[in-house]
Amino acid sequence: MPKFPVRALVPVLALAALGTSACTPLRSHTGYVVDKELIDSIQPGVDNRDSVLRTLGRPTLTSQFAEGEWYYVSRDNRNMAYSQPKPTDQLTLRVRFDAAGNVTAVDRSGLEKVAKVDPYGKTTPTLGRHRSFFSDLFGNIGTVGAPGTGGPGGAPGQ
Fold this sequence. Notes:
The chain is of the alpha+beta class. It is built from four helices and five strands. Keywords: Membrane, Signal.
């Protein structure tokens, strides 16, 4: 039986280890770091804006339409090598306040609220005419100053 050189085995094993490590899933966390005990300690009718700020810290974001809402968002992601991260777990905590600044409700939601948006190719679809580069470039020739276009000599009411 021929002897197999040990020196040839080392690079083969190194390449195999390197190849299998590229398939290891990457995990990441973004947003608020959740402490279940602190979240559970926020009680409607008991806490106010200051106590929530001291307990949970600054919110991830505040509502722009209803000024009495604070959001704390926490997300765990997973992806393989160079692929896009996919959410594996999410907690969105919404703390609602009344006009006096007292907590009225604490709502929780998870991955069921995550929306997946698929872009349409490399262009954004628009309604209307499809124009070419040259029609965009030369399309205004002859319309400048024409009646009804608002240009000099063509302003409505003249």
